[in-house]
Amino acid sequence: MSISNISWMGFKELVLVDRVEECPGIVSFYFKDKNGDKLAKHKPGQFLPFKIKTDDSKYKDAIRTYSLSIVSNENMYRISVKKIDGGLISSYLHDKLNIGDSIEAMAPSGVFTIKESSKNKPIVLISAGIGVTPLLSMLYEESKTRDDIYFVQAVQNSDIHPFKDDIKYISDDKGFKNTIFYSNPLDKDQEGIDYDFIGRVNTEWIKNNLPLDADYYFCGPPPFMKGVEASLLELGVDKDSINYELFS
Ligand SMILES: Cc1cc2nc3c(=O)[nH]c(=O)nc-3n(C[C@H](O)[C@H](O)[C@H](O)COP(=O)(O)OP(=O)(O)OC[C@H]3O[C@@H](n4cnc5c(N)ncnc54)[C@H](O)[C@@H]3O)c2cc1C
């Protein structure tokens, strides 16, 4: 097996080695290098741009990017994909990509990563829905060396709550604050057990529960992003401390 952990130019063939349903509508896909070479280690928060390896002209040249949702490593990538109604590539991945199939991937890229200057202050990682993926990768990395992390996850309810156990395991182990918002809890969902708050992440809650001198990283649907950014600015959080990624 040759070793090439350096970033690559153009496209590299990766093969699907596993797929796991995280919750209804969200599947994680695990890829390795087709030739068994080492992969470039991504910076947590970065995404993998790729196209499907197929002769079907419908999918052939469609490039999409998906945040890497795994701890940074040289052996395997993981992306976690929400199936979009009528979505070309998310539907292909969910419905047609089988173990052993290939994609053609560019090297991980993106600038939504933890800044050097965040090392000396608390970090707050806030996600809504599938926007959890880049923040999860950041969480894996940052929790290795620090506990001044505030992780806030907003989802609809316990049926659509990806990575719940993973995040709970890390937060219990490392002793940092993990807060869960359900916008639409089910009858079976229990406050204080399944979730902490009903509704959305809002200005009042941020003011009372999060350190305003922290660096903030967040990702989710556009209305959520606009709301969080507006709240942080209203509360006087420095613009340089506000970092986010849009999935569009
Ligand atoms: C930096 C970055 C990181 C991303 N990371 C992830 C990730 O980790 N997991 C993930 O599931 N997705 C992620 N996305 C979104 C992903 O790249 C695709 O845009 C998404 O899967 C839709 O692609 P598609 O080919 O299925 O839909 P398309 O065929 O491109 O679009 C079909 C329809 O869906 C609408 N649509 C497109 N994207 C979205 C969306 N995100 N939400 C709602 N409607 C949409 C379009 O307006 C269109 O009407 C990321 C996007 C970016 C830019």
TrEMBL record:
Its EC number is 1.14.12.17. The lineage of its organism: Bacteria, Bacillati, Bacillota, Clostridia, Peptostreptococcales. One of its GO terms (biological process) is cellular response to nitrosative stress. Keywords: FAD, Flavoprotein, Heme, Iron, Metal-binding, NAD, NADP, Oxidoreductase, Oxygen transport, Transport. The keyword 4Fe-4S does not apply. Residues 9-115 form the FAD-binding FR-type domain. It comes from the Bacteria. The keyword Metal-binding applies. In the C-terminal section; belongs to the flavoprotein pyridine nucleotide cytochrome reductase family. It catalyses: 2 nitric oxide + NADPH + 2 O2 = 2 nitrate + NADP(+) + H(+); 2 nitric oxide + NADH + 2 O2 = 2 nitrate + NAD(+) + H(+). It comes from Romboutsia weinsteinii. One of its GO terms (molecular function) is metal ion binding. Its cofactor is heme b; FAD. This is nitric oxide dioxygenase. Pfam families: FAD_binding_6 (PF00970), NAD_binding_1 (PF00175). InterPro entries: Cbr1-like_FAD-bd_dom, FAD-bd_FR_type, FNR_nucleotide-bd, OxRdtase_FAD/NAD-bd, Riboflavin_synthase-like_b-brl. SUPFAM superfamilies: Ferredoxin reductase-like, C-terminal NADP-linked domain, Riboflavin synthase domain-like. Coiled coil: none annotated.
